[in-house]
Amino acid sequence: MSTLKQQHVADPTLTEESIADYLQANPEFFERHSALLNSLRLPHDAGGPAVSLVERQVLVLRQKNVKLERKLKDLLDVARSNDALASRIHALAMLMLAAPDPAGVVRVLEEQLRISFNADQSVLVVFEDPAGGANSGRFLRVVGRDDPAIASFRTFLQANAPRCGQVRDAQRDFLFGAGNVEIGSVALVPLGQKSELGFLAVGSRDSDHFHPGMSIEFLARLGELVSCALRTRAAA
């Protein structure tokens, strides 16, 4: 029978829980009884020989330090990524402001999504032609808001926030062509309140690139920027 169990028989009030409560309430206990730190032995996490309490504490602190370093690295990576993304959005804004007309805005947007934002495919769907009679093409899609072709987007069009993830077959076929299975995930970005101008669709071959749990702040800013640029150049 262990010492603890022997004491437990002699004193029913002495339990593992009561000892733990006492040590927690008196963290200076081992300062007064420092010799115990080297005499107490604990099993090694990796299954090796027993180690002293001090060695075990050092091991725990090292493990916590490794976890904190990894978390810090992740935060720094996210910060760098966000900073780079903010710079690209700023550059896009400058280029669209310099465009002479709505058609120029559309050209700049298509080019920058492909070059600076590495979009595998992208489509700008508008309910009124912003490009002065330009025909719909692979990037620019001019349709009526009540067009049956966009019926599958009704719920999204009534919302005021970007949506990320996989899309239904009807949505994918409309945006990227019937039978196009290379697009794994899509970001849908409204242009104006309840997509009054239309919406932007950015597709990725990676099924996890755009997912429902990701931050949509930059996508929302992108939508506001494109909407403003189209309105400003149309009024010029």
Provide a short characterization of the protein structure.
The protein is α+β, with helices and mostly antiparallel strands and 236 residues long. The chain has helices spanning 3-10, 16-25, 29-32, 35-39, 53-98, 102-115, 154-158, 169-176, 217-235; strands spanning 41-42, 51-52, 121-126, 140-142, 163-165, 185-191, 198-204. It is elongated, with a radius of gyration of 30 Å.
Main features:
2 domains, five-stranded mixed beta sheet, 236 residues, alpha+beta, Beta-Lactamase, two-stranded antiparallel sheet, disordered N terminus, single chain, 9 helices
Strand content: 5-15%
The helicity comes to 40-55%
Rg for CA atoms: 30 Å
CATH topology of the largest domain: Beta-Lactamase
Q: Give the CATH superfamily of the largest domain.
A: GAF domain
Largest beta sheet: what is the strand line-up?
Answer: 4-3-7-6-5
Whole-number mean pLDDT: 83
Largest sheet: 5 strands, mixed
In the CATH hierarchy, what is the class of the largest domain?
Answer: Alpha Beta
Number of helices: 9
CATH architecture of the largest domain: 2-Layer Sandwich
**Whole-number count of domains:** 2
Q: What is the terminal separation in angstroms?
A: 91 Å
| Structure summary, number of beta strands | 7
